[in-house]
Amino acid sequence: MTIKILNLYAGIGGNRKLWDGDIEVTAIENNKEIAKIYQDFFPNDKVIVCDAHQYLLEHFEEYDFIWSSPPCPTHSQMKVFMVKSQKGWNKDRKASYPDMKLYEEIILLKHFFKGKWVVENVRSYYDPLIKPQEIQRHYIWSNFNVGNIKLKRGNIAKKHTNDVAEYYGVDNLDKYSLKTFRKDQAVRNCVHPKLGLHIFNMAFKEPQKTLT
What we know:
Elements: E1 3-8, E2 23-28, H1 32-41, E3 46-48, H2 52-59, E4 65-68, H3 77-85, H4 101-112, E5 116-122, E6 133-135, E7 138-142, H5 161-168, H6 183-188, H7 193-204
Parallel strand pairs: 1-2, 1-4, 2-3, 4-5
Antiparallel strand pairs: 5-7, 6-7
């Protein structure tokens, strides 16, 4: 039976890279340039350029498995570092409200969605309002046990984009000319494919591709 998957805030598709089998993936990405790259990488997926948060609300009942990786900057420990140290981009230097869309999605999926679901984010600078499962630097909210996986660790924040791309096993985007998004950030935003594969396997217990 075909598994219908909704991949929200898809980026360039790090989490999706190793998914295989009888699947039908719809990817939601609001940046047209990033969505084009995702489509290049996964030509058989349906890619929609729109607001992922709103799409989830309107279409969640149409899928068997939902993966959501909402933007993390307002939750991350790096945010506090930026504000207190006054380092980084100007927009990061001011205190701001955490984006509560993260918890809106968790609550929606927990109470109304009948399939398997995952919401992924980074470790937050505050105690999470809803207790997650944890895998290394990731918080994982889901309606199944995601287990654990040991991934090679490294300080990717200080590495060159090519090194980060190699770490994730993704394209370094050198062949693309982006006007609205930084290439290095597009790569750094990836969820490691091995983590995406591990969680998918925990949801469906099916053999998938491996990344060497």
